[in-house]
Amino acid sequence: MAPPSATATATATTTETEAPPSLKPTNYVPHEPGISEEQAKVQMPRFPGPPTFTDKYAERDYLKGRLAAAFRIFGKHGFDEGVAGHITLRDPVDPTTFWVNPFGVAFSLMKKSDLIQVDHHGKIIDGGPIRLLNAAAFMIHSAVHTARPDVMCAAHSHSIYGRTFCALGKPLDITTQDACAFYKDLALYESFRGIVLAEEEGLNIAKSLGGCKAALLQNHGLLTVGKTVEEAVFWFLSLEKCCHSQLMADAAAAGRGWETVKIADEDAAFTYKTIGTPMAGWFSCKPAFDLIEREAGVDYLQ
Question: Cα(89)–Cα(140) distance, rounded to whole angstroms?
Fold first, then answer.
């Protein structure tokens, strides 16, 4: 039997109480449908921030640990492809140099003590016992760190969905909330001239990246940057999933003769302000770093 509320009819004696203005339905929906304008004014909590240091050498030691953890995260997600892929960290003591993974060391085995320090002439000046530098890593990352003083970390690998999407040579469509983090903040480098062994190619990639947080490198893969290691890593994780999502959505739509629904510019821009900021990127990656720390113990900090 249906509940009374579903069958009862209103009588002449029924009185209605007008809802307070703050609870009345409204067409103003800045966050989620079905909420009042007053409720929509509730703000996201303030994100905690990364630790700060007065001692640059202590900061270096901490950040090298985060960089080693970043490689463990990339390994866990299968972003390694043989010896390809690299993540760099601008050295806080000498910002004209950066730390990078030694050529040939597995992402999933990376330790803080393995990392090598490289100057912007490509010379290894400090680091672990395996002092082999990936030339492509130097050409790309040296150019990016030079062109972008705000970038503390840059990440690039040949992840499966990223490189597959990059084979299309097209921009990412803003079709999901997560994609809004890259709204007008994602470059497309429309060129491929083989392995990046020439300085000119690295400079061209840096120029194409411009002031964006990420770039799609045609026929190559993804490149992300950040003011922190965590931010650069999260943008890579998220962009890889966005590429995967669009590949599936495009295939499903094409199979039915449909088109995917794009998010309106105004809504994408609004969402970007919440999930596309450097601090949002840092905070969003905290769970991934917490998990790798639990799984790896202190091994990566050796």
Answer: 13
